[in-house]
Amino acid sequence: MKWTHEHEEVRRTLERFIDKEINPHVDAWEKAEIFPAHELFKKMGDLGLLGLTKPAEYGGSGLDYSFSMLMAETLGKVACGGVPMAIGVQTDMCTPALARFGSHELKQRFLAPAISGDNVACVGISEPGAGSDVAAIRTTARKDGDDYVINGSKMWITNSLQADWMCLLANTSEGAAHRNKSLIIVPLNTPGVKVESKIRKIGMFSSDTGLLHFDDVRVPQRNRIGEEGMGFTYQMMQFQEERLWSAANTIGGLTQCINKTIEYTRQREAFGHAILDNQYVHFRLAELKTEVESLRGMTYLALERYLSGEDVTELASMAKLKGGRLMRIVPDACLQFWGGMGFTWDNPVSRLYRDGRLGSIGAGADEVMLGIICKHMGTLPLRGAKA
Predict the structure, then answer these.
(1) Domain 122-229 sits in which CATH superfamily?
(2) What is the chain's alpha carbon radius of gyration, rounded to the nearest angstrom?
(3) Of 135, 186, 195, 353, which has fewest CB within 10 angstroms of its CB?
(4) What is the CATH topology of the domain spanning 5-120?
(5) Contact at 8 Å (CB) between 164 and 187?
(6) Is the four-CA dihedral 73, 374, 126, 331 of positive or negative sign?
């Protein structure tokens, strides 16, 4: 993937924003276990950073998906994982289906304020009994007159403690699990919506995560995105971009991890010479960088094919899988070279060590990615065969 002058201008704008508006506050946000999403998103919206790929008619820039990937990679320079994840939810997880398939009215009411930063949004897919298995969700939206009446729960929902609205997946009819679901925009101030609890996590502290209940929540049927029964299909399409975004963001974060470790081990001495001067240390760092660059190559290839209109489900799943695995390997290896400093709470590598563990779980666990890859390879066992 060759970045153009326009790409580099967006990168520089975002880097300046990170340096001025995000990184100086990360430690405080991590301690508070939340960041001011409305305040930060409004500043990003004013710079046009929340709608790079969205239609100009609703305040976006109308650029192709490579700009989202560039933004995801650049957000790897943020000194934590939680804030980039929250931004990614806003730009690439809860709004793509709305932008593609939503009515003009829905886009005016919900997409435009998400692009401007006046609204914070979230996506409601996972439930207490359904995470990576999207088809197993149990939340229902029953028709009653011109409305849907929604009942159920959504769990692990990023941004949900601050969000103005949710892009919610619910069962809108009986029948096949892949054909009975719809995506519905639900304003979270609607009667019957209850934020049951904030979920505390082992990482991603500055990103708020909640468990929400929906008890006879009534919304107009016109809040449905696209056709009824197409929600699962729309969500699977959205997952391609979400997984590519995750891989690109991983590239940025791991590059920062390796660079910070080089800087530290060059300055830190033991037994009369710099830690970096040990052959094992600089050889290992070279191996890690090679792995990250292999992820970059795969991710950029997937992006180029996606831009040309190809289905990149297999490659996106491979990139997501590889990124999640490297998020477990690279910070762990680098942390060792920091010695006792690596075992301290506020160390940047130990923070990535905690935050990055989500990479093999969120947006489809490693095992789900492997299943998708096997399906495309034609190597899945016959139903009923022993694994």
Answers:
(1) Butyryl-CoA Dehydrogenase, subunit A, domain 2 (2.40.110.10)
(2) 21
(3) 135
(4) Butyryl-Coa Dehydrogenase, subunit A; domain 1 (1.10.540)
(5) yes
(6) negative
pLDDT value of position 1: 77
Contact 183, 247 (CB under 8 A): no
Which residues on neighbouring strands pair with residue 127, listed in sequence order? 130
Mean pLDDT of the chain: 95
Could you identify the residue written with the tokens 């100009």?
56
- pLDDT for 382 equals 60
**Please, what's the b/e burial string for 302-329 (b: 16 or more CB within 10 A of its CB; e: otherwise)?**
bbeebeeeeebbbbbbbbbbbbbbbbee
- Note whether 158 and 89 are within 8 A (CB): yes
Nearest-angstrom CA–CA distance, 302 and 318: 10
Residue 134: the pLDDT is 87
- Which pair of structure tokens corresponds to residue 277? 């001067």
Query: Would you state the structure tokens that stand for residue 32, as one six-digit string?
Result: 């508070």
Structure tokens at 41: 């998103």
Between the alpha carbon of residue 21 and those of residues 13, 29, 92, 297, the distances in Å are 12, 12, 21, 31
Q: What is the mean pLDDT of residues 351-380?
A: 94
Q: How far apart are CA 216 and CA 234, in angstroms?
A: 25
CA distance readout (Å), 193 to 13, 53, 84, 186: 37, 31, 26, 9
Question: Facing residues of 150 across strands?
Answer: 141, 217
- Token output for 119: 């609204």
The answer to whether 217 and 229 have CB atoms below 8 angstroms apart is no
pLDDT digits (tens, 9 = 90+) for 140-194: 999 999 999 999 999 999 999 999 999 999 999 998 988 999 999 999 999 999 9
Residues 6 or more apart whose Cβ sits within 8 Å of residue 305: 312, 315
Task: Please provide residue 215's backbone torsions phi and psi, each rounded to the nearest 5 degrees.
Answer: -120, 100
Element (H, E) at 99: helix 96-101
214 pairs with which residues across the strands? 152, 193
Give dist(CA 373, CA 354) in Å, integer: 27
Has residue 257 got a pLDDT over 60? yes
Which sequence spans correspond to the domains of the chain? 5-120, 122-229, 233-377
Active site (catalytic) residues: 242
